[in-house]
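Input/output pair, single chain:
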Amino acid sequence: MKKVFTLGLIYAGTVIGAGFASGAELYRFFGLYGGGGFIGLGVSCILYAVLGWFVFHAAAGADSVFEILGRGVVSKGVMAVNFCFMFVLFCSMTAAAGAMGEMLWGIDDKICSLVFSVVIFLCVMGGKNDFANVNIILTPVLILFGIYVGMHILPYCGIKADMSLEKCMGAVKSGVVYVSYNILSLPAVIFPFKSYLKCDRIGIGASISGSLMMLALGLSILPCIAAYGESAKESALPMLTLAEKFGGGLCFALYAAVLFAAIFTTAAGNLFGLGEELLRGRNRICLFALTALGYIGSLMGFSRIISEIYALFGILGLFNIVFLVYNFIGTALKKRQLSKNC
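Output:
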C-alpha cells in the first residue's frame, strides 16, 4: 500500500505543473468549452489512469528506460527526444519559480531562479529516496490546499453549464492533446522505481490514485476558471488572482504554496529523470552541469519558453501514446501466446 501511495504521489506531482495549478492550462484546454470542459477533464483523467498503467507496466519489464515505448529504433528515438522535452520543462519550471519569487517578494527573478536551481539540485542529488520524500510531503500540500482554495472561492464565481455536443467534443479532443503533452517525462521518472513494481496491482493502484488526485484538483479549479471567462487570458496566474480577489490574504498565501509545490515537484521530477537515466553511472558534477544549463535556459523567461519551445514538441506526445499502446498490446499478446504454449 505504501508503494502504491508513493508512486501515485510521484505521478501526480510530476504531471501537475505550474500551468495546471495556476489554472492557465485548464482554461486553455478545458475552460474555453464551458460545461463541456468537465467532460474533457474527465476523459483526460481516464487517459491518465490508463496510460499511466501502461507506463508502470512497461517499466516493470524493461531493462532500460529506452525500452518503455518499445524495443524498436524509432521508439527509442522518440524516448531520446522526450529527454530534450524534459530539459525544456525543467528550464520552464525554473523560470516560473523566478517569476513567482519576483511577483511575491520583489526579488529579481534571476536570483530566485538561481536559488531554486540550487535547492532542486540538492534534492535530486540525494537520490530516489529523497526525491520520493519530497513528493510525499509536497504533493498532498499541492492537492489539499488547492482543493480548499477552489472550494472557498467557488461560490463567488458560479458555474457555466454550456454542454452542447460541439463544446463537449472540442473539450475531449483538447483533453487528449493535453494528456499527450504531460506524459512525456513520466517513463524516465518512473523507471528508477521499477523495483517497487513487483506486481501489476501496484502500477494499477498508483496510476488510478494519481489520476484521482489530478481529477480532484481539476474539479476544484476548473469551475472558477471557467466562470472567470475571457479575463483569464489576461492573467498569467488566474487562480492566484482569484484567490486574492475573493479569498483574501489566507487563500492567496495558500495558493502561492500550491503553485510553488507544483513548480518544485515538476522541476524535481524532470531533473531526477534526466539525472537517473540520461546521466546514469556519471558523477554529481555532470548533474550540477545539467542543472546549470537548465538555469541558463530559464533566462529565456517562462512565457517565451512556453510560446516558442513547447510547440515544437506537440506531435511528440501523440507518438508517445501510440508507442505506449502498441507496446502494451504487443506484450499482452506475447504473454497470452506463452501461456497457451505451456
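The longest helix spans residues 238-278. The mean pLDDT is 87.
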